[in-house]
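Sequence only, no structure available. Ideas?
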Amino acid sequence: AGPGVGRVLGGVGGTWGAREACATRRGIAELGLVGSAVRRDFRADSDVDSLVRYALDSHRGIVDLEREQAELTKLTGRAVYVLTRAAVERMDNPLRRRSILTQVRTLYVA
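Reply:
I predicted one. Tokens follow.
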């Protein structure tokens, strides 16, 4: 993993158990980082791209994603963007889709 992973996790604060409880409460079955947070080009002003897979029984909408982005932005002190794995898997651009899915650094799996 790139050096950004530690800085992102450090920015979230709290114990891993607290983060896991938050993910469970939100219906997140899998959470990972992509983009510069997992590469060497992660900087102090970099945003954070996260990839989530929701549990099958979780019914999440765009408002939920926006709420989660806002909460994670507040917790980390940097812009956070939430992508769903399902949306990435449906991308028309196979190069972009493969690029995202092959660089995922998984942080949590239910």
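The mean pLDDT is 80.
Hope that gets you unstuck.
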